[in-house]
Specification:
five-stranded mixed sheet, 351 residues, six-stranded mixed sheet
Length: 351
């Protein structure tokens, strides 16, 4: 999920479901508002909101489709807290390539896009409490984010049902697990078997590099920022878990879900609480075996997302955006999946 048009004018002032009007924290020209379908909900019912994005300028604006609200969840586009504590996102985490013209939506002057979104299928809203819900697209590809002020909801009589997770199939001790394939042709099974082996080589090499080098190296700094002892330890721990997952866990590859639809042009996606299942999309098959945005690197990216591995997010996509993230926000770089991928691929090679 590589460039968006410039924004014009200032954001509009709007109200939040009958409360005091507040200014939307959106790029100049786009006003974003979240409105709960019902501000008070009782029982284990679906939680729905409407997200409204308005072009307040006198000119048409091209907006990256991935940064706009959608009825489906492809990445964490909402910032939700319960009684001041962030709640977990449990939906898809999609790795995307550079956008094409078809990936932009043209919004005419004054146009408002209203999208109804059901939240409880992708966020842990299983507990009673006071929730704040804000739209918070990170602009991971373009660096242009769309944000709203928070709306407030009260959820009562929730039963705190445990989130459904997929239990990983444990491999026999000391043996390499055999991947499981769903909807994958024989040739794609061969590609995935090779990519899995290459991903393990990448992960082991990254771990060996960290065990032998100092934190303040060019390679580490480029992708994760200043190499403090703490940050170095975090990434070493992450790659220890990534390496162990590729070496010992049964990975399930699903090739059946992306031939068409909104994720057709993506590389892959996962659900972070469903280890170790990886869904492969069209861009994956066109990627090189090794090198930048490779098949092996994509598997590193996706493996890092799982909660039981490194629990990474998608804060930036592409090498340029990841370099900027390391410079400007190293804390987010340490949790960014593409940063882990590029550190492992190490192309061009850095000492």
């Amino acid at each position: 999920m590589k460039c968006m048009h410039s924004w014009a004018a200032t954001a509009a002032i709007v109200a939040s479901f009958g409360l005091t009007p507040v200014a939307m924290a959106a790029p100049a020209g786009l006003a974003v508002r979240v409105t709960p379908m019902t501000p008070v909900l009782k029982g284990d019912v679906d939680v729905q909101v409407t997200v409204s994005v308005t072009n307040t300028t006198r000119e048409a604006l091209s907006v990256l489709r991935w940064d706009l609200p959608s009825a489906s969840h492809d990445n964490a586009l909402f910032s939700i807290e319960r009684d001041g504590v962030p709640v977990a996102y449990t939906g898809k985490l999609v790795k995307r390539g550079a956008p094409t013209a078809d990936d932009y939506v043209l919004m005419q002057p004054g146009q408002t896009l209203d999208v109804q979104v059901e939240l409880s299928s992708a966020y842990d809203l299983s507990r009673s409490g006071t929730y704040t819900v804000a739209f918070a697209s990170s602009g991971a590809r373009d660096g242009v984010s769309l944000r709203s002020e928070p709306a407030y909801m009260w959820l009562e009589a929730r039963t705190a049902l445990a989130q459904l997770t997929r239990s990983p199939a444990a491999a026999a001790a000391g043996q390499r697990a055999t991947p499981i394939f769903t909807g994958c042709s024989a040739s794609r099974q061969t590609d995935l078997t090779t990519a899995t082996a290459n991903a393990l080589v990448y992960a082991n090499a990254a771990l060996a590099y960290q065990n032998s080098a100092r934190a303040a190296t060019q390679r580490f700094t480029r992708w994760f920022g200043p190499g403090s002892r703490s940050s170095w330890g975090t990434i070493r721990t992450n790659f220890t878990k990534i390496s162990d997952a590729f070496a010992t866990q049964t990975i399930e590859y699903d090739c059946s879900t992306c031939p068409a639809g909104p994720n057709a042009s993506a590389y892959a996606y996962v659900f972070r609480n469903q280890p170790y299942k990886i869904y492969l999309c069209n861009a994956f098959w066109a990627a090189p075996a090794l090198g930048t945005d490779s098949k092996a690197g994509t598997l590193i990216h996706e493996m890092s997302h799982f909660t039981v591995v490194a629990n990474t997010d998608d804060n930036a996509y592409g090498q340029s955006a990841c370099v900027n993230l390391a410079l400007n926000n190293p804390a987010l770089a340490l949790r960014n999946a593409d940063s882990h991928e590029y550190f492992a691929e190490n192309t061009p090679a850095l000492p």
